[in-house]
């Protein structure tokens, strides 16, 4: 249904078709400004608009019609490149979510009102955090009676904490198109807090067990792969432990207090988070070197260099942040159903620091995105090269190094590669889901559950490595026994 043309044809007919909506008919004096409040919007129509709407009639009063329609009556279509209508192009075309699903209709007199020197003012009230709000009106495409698009032409937007003020130079069907910011509601906060604390406590326990297992494996048979796992597990232990301490210590402090312990815990949390991401990247890099290692390429002081990067860079960054007094008490706003906000605090990047959001986004969004992307590229590169080299080996290529590889070496290489690939997926996927936290509450729950249980995932991988080590040991013993039997049989 095209409500714009419906109004132009006969307003009484439209009232019958839209009988569920409350139309406000006002006889207003053209020499005075008219004001009317409907739903969550206050409409102010200047006298110049009322005078223009009466056309050639010299009446002192005109009929002003104001109502609120549901946005479902409006079917957006792509903005036309030309043709009729106020807009001849796409520059004013705007898409998004209509605030409150409400479209405010403001019509007066019998003549179209446009190009006003004193604009019509509409004040929309809102109770949610909003970004990129835009005042729009409904522009028909004139292709049929059902389609149109939202246009910002002739409208100016002013956003405040509780209101959005629209000033437009014409009368039309008005709305506010927004991109709402997803925030955690007060009712969901206790459940998310319980999941985070419980999962982190379990992760601390299981990462300690994983460290013991990795240390024993490394003690029995030193291996760089196990050593990388050992460092990553240590970083995760520091991360979950510092999170629990930061969350608990802030409960001891008063609301306005910030002490050096809270700042230190914020530094430890920030440093361990960055170290975890970098050791994830090291896992991907080491996965690539598993392929290169068959050529006996030796890197001097390999683990020392990796440690300098994965532990040194976070430490250096944290020290620089300390010099700018970045760390302290971080406040998270929670939205309540009664429009009364509450807060949750954490020892992290101080909310008083001017660039706290920038640092938080770099640490919790940009860095994990780059790490996940890097690991994905490393995995793709390894798979591509291994498949290509395997084909050349089967085809009788000239690479003598690859000809020497027997089935046991290939099996070992694929087991090591699959182990690191699985570990990379386990650690990279939860942080890859961080983008869902900006989309839905379900994404927040999924992200919280998976990341709080990372310590358990690490423990499961340590058990897998233990089982693989025992299987290889048993296989070696069987081979040794077989060789002894063959020797005895030949002597006999």
Automatic annotation (TrEMBL):
GO terms for biological process: adenylate cyclase-activating G protein-coupled receptor signaling pathway; cell surface receptor signaling pathway. The keyword Nucleotide-binding does not apply. Coiled coil: none annotated. One of its GO terms (cellular component) is plasma membrane. It comes from the Eukaryota. GO terms for molecular function: G protein-coupled receptor activity. Residues 19-184 form the GAIN-B domain. Keywords: Cell membrane, Disulfide bond, G-protein coupled receptor, Glycoprotein, Membrane, Receptor, Signal, Transducer, Transmembrane, Transmembrane helix. Its main location: membrane. It is a multi-pass membrane protein. The keyword Calcium does not apply. Gene3D superfamilies: 2.60.220.50, Rhodopsin 7-helix transmembrane proteins (1.20.1070.10). InterPro entries: GAIN_B, GAIN_dom_sf, GPCR_2-like_7TM, GPCR_2_secretin-like, GPR1/GPR3/GPR5, GPS. It is found in: Cell membrane. The chain crosses the membrane at residues 194-214, 226-252, 264-291, 303-327, 358-384, 413-433, 439-465. Residues 192-466 form the G-protein coupled receptors family 2 profile domain. PANTHER family: ADHESION G PROTEIN-COUPLED RECEPTOR G3, ADHESION G-PROTEIN COUPLED RECEPTOR. This is Adhesion G-protein coupled receptor G5-like. It comes from Takifugu rubripes.
